[in-house]
TrEMBL record:
Pfam annotation, one family: Folate_carrier
Organism: Mesorhabditis spiculigera
Protein name: Uncharacterized protein
Keyword Cytoplasm: no
Keywords: Membrane, Signal, Transmembrane, Transmembrane helix
GO MF annotation, one: vitamin transmembrane transporter activity
Single GO cellular component term: plasma membrane
Signal peptide (UniProt feature, chain positions): 1-18
Residues forming coiled coils: none
Length: 409
C-alpha cells in the first residue's frame, strides 16, 4: 500500500476521533442536563481523569511497540466510544457513571501515542516530517470543524447538548470502523526498522546482522534501543532543560484544560460561547503545524528566553482569568494555552507531567485535599506558571551578567 494511502487512512481516523462537538459543552451537559453538582464534578469526577491517564500511560507506553500499534489504536477508539455511550445513556445524577467516563477517557488519552507512532512504521524516513504534520493537523481539523458546528447548533438553538453527544458518538463509531480497517503492522517490518537504526548509529562500520529474525529478538532489540535512546537523551543538558519545562508546562496545561469549563460555567450569561472559543485554538494551530516542518529556529540561542516569556505570559493570563467577570476575556485568555506532544522523550515527559498534575490535583482540587473553589484554583495555576518563569529566568540573567562583564573588560 502506498504511503499516502496509509497516511490518508490514519488522518481520516484522526479527524473522526477528534470530531466531538459535545466536548466544549460537557460541563454544561453534566451540570445542567445530568444534574451533577459543581462540587461533585470538581472534587469527585474530574480528578479521576488525571489519575487514570497517569496509571494507563506507563503500560501503554511500554506495550505499544510490542503490540505493533494497531491494537492500541483500536483500543483508543473503543475507549472513546465507551465514554460517549455512557454520556448518552447514563442516568441523571449518577456520579459513578461520570467517574467511569473519566477512567475511560484516561485510557483514550493514554493510548493516543499509538496514533502518532503507527505511521512511522508504515512510511519511509524521508516522509517523517510530512506525516508528522499531517497527523497533527488531522486532529486539529476534526476539533475545529466539531467546535464550530457545536457553536452554530447551540447559538441558533437548533439542538441541545444531548444531541451533540449523539453526533460525537456517531463520529467515534466511524473512527472505530476506520481503526479496524487500518493495515496491520508486521513485527518483521518493525524489526527491520530497528536494525536500520542500529546500522545508522554504527556508521561508518556497521555490524552485519545475519541472525534469523524472530519476535523475541524483536522484543529484545526494541528494549535495547529504548534504553540506549533514553541514556542518550537525558545526558544532554539542552534536552534535560526542555524536558523539565515541557513537563511543568504540560502539568499546568492539563490542569487548566480539565477545569477551564468549570471556570467558564461560573460566569453566568445568556449565551454560551464555549464552541467558538475551543474552535479558535485549532484554527490558529492548523497552519502552524503544517508550516513547522519548514521552519528552522536556533533554540539553543533563543530557548531560555522563549521558555521564560511563555511561562510569564501564561501565568499572567491565568491570574487575570481567575479574577475577571468578563466571559469574553476569559475565553480569549483560555484559548492562548495549548500544547501537544509525541515520541519517546515527550511520552516520558508527559508521564512526569501527570505525576506532578496528580499531586497538584490531590492538593488543590480533590475532595480529600483543599477542594478549593474554581477561581482560587486558577490563582494557584497562575502562581505555578510564575514559578516556571522564575526557574528559567536564571540562565538568562547569568548570560546577561557574563555579557556585561565581557563588555566592561
Amino acid at each position: 500500500m502506498q504511503w499516502w494511502t496509509i497516511t490518508l487512512l490514519i488522518c481520516s481516523y484522526g479527524v473522526l476521533k477528534a470530531f466531538r462537538p459535545s466536548e466544549p459543552y460537557l460541563y454544561q451537559y453534566e451540570h445542567e442536563t445530568l444534574n451533577i453538582s459543581e462540587k461533585d464534578l470538581e472534587g469527585k469526577v474530574y480528578p479521576l481523569w488525571t489519575y487514570s491517564y497517569m496509571a494507563f500511560l506507563v503500560p501503554v507506553f511500554l506495550l505499544t511497540d510490542l503490540l505493533l500499534y494497531k491494537p492500541v489504536v483500536v483500543l483508543e477508539a473503543i475507549a472513546y466510544v465507551t465514554c460517549w455511550v455512557l454520556f448518552v445513556f447514563g442516568r441523571k445524577g449518577n456520579v459513578l457513571i461520570q467517574q467511569l467516563i473519566e477512567v475511560s477517557y484516561g485510557v483514550a488519552t493514554a493510548t493516543e501515542i499509538a496514533y502518532y507512532a503507527y505511521i512511522y512504521i508504515k512510511v519511509d524516513k524521508e516522509q517523517y516530517k510530512k506525516v508528522t504534520s499531517y497527523t497533527h493537523a488531522a486532529l486539529l481539523i476534526g476539533k475545529c470543524l466539531a467546535y464550530f458546528l457545536a457553536q452554530l447548533l447551540i447559538a441558533t438553538k437548533w439542538t441541545n447538548y444531548k444531541t451533540l453527544n449523539w453526533i460525537s458518538l456517531g463520529s467515534l463509531c466511524l473512527a472505530f470502523v476506520v481503526s479496524v480497517i487500518l493495515p496491520m503492522v508486521s513485527w518483521r517490518t518493525a524489526y527491520q526498522k530497528l536494525l536500520e537504526m542500529r546500522m545508522e548509529d554504527e556508521k561508518p562500520a556497521p555490524l552485519v546482522f545475519d541472525e534469523v529474525p524472530t519476535y523475541p529478538r524483536y522484543v529484545r532489540a526494541h528494549f535495547s534501543r529504548w534504553f540506549k535512546e533514553l541514556k542518550g537523551i537525558y545526558s544532554q543538558s539542552f534536552l534535560v532543560k526542555w524536558s523539565l519545562w515541557w513537563a511543568m508546562a504540560s502539568c499546568a496545561y492539563f490542569q487548566v484544560g480539565n477545569y477551564s469549563q468549570t471556570l467558564w460555567g461560573s460566569v453566568h450569561g445568556k449565551k454560551v460561547w464555549n464552541g467558538i472559543t475551543e474552535a479558535i485554538c485549532p484554527l490558529i494551530a492548523i497552519p502552524v503545524v503544517l508550516l513547522m516542518q519548514k521552519v528552522e529556529v536556533d533554540w539553543k540561542k533563543w530557548g531560555e528566553l522563549f521558555l521564560c516569556l511563555m511561562s510569564l505570559i501564561d501565568g499572567a493570563l491565568l491570574a487575570i482569568a481567575s479574577q475577571t467577570s468578563s466571559i469574553y476575556l476569559i475565553f480569549n485568555l483560555a484559548s492562548r494555552i495549548r500544547a501537544t506532544s509525541t515520541a519517546l522523550v515527550f511520552g516520558l515527559n508527559t508521564f512526569v507531567a501527570l505525576v506532578m498534575q496528580s499531586i497538584l490535583t490531590a492538593i488543590v482540587a480533590d475532595q480529600h485535599g483543599l477542594a478549593l473553589d474554581i477561581r482560587p484554583q486558577f490563582v494557584v495555576y497562575a502562581c505555578f506558571h510564575g514559578v516556571i518563569a522564575v526557574i528559567f529566568s536564571g540562565p538568562i540573567f547569568l548570560k546577561i551578567i557574563r555579557w556585561s562583564a565581557r563588555f566592561r573588560s
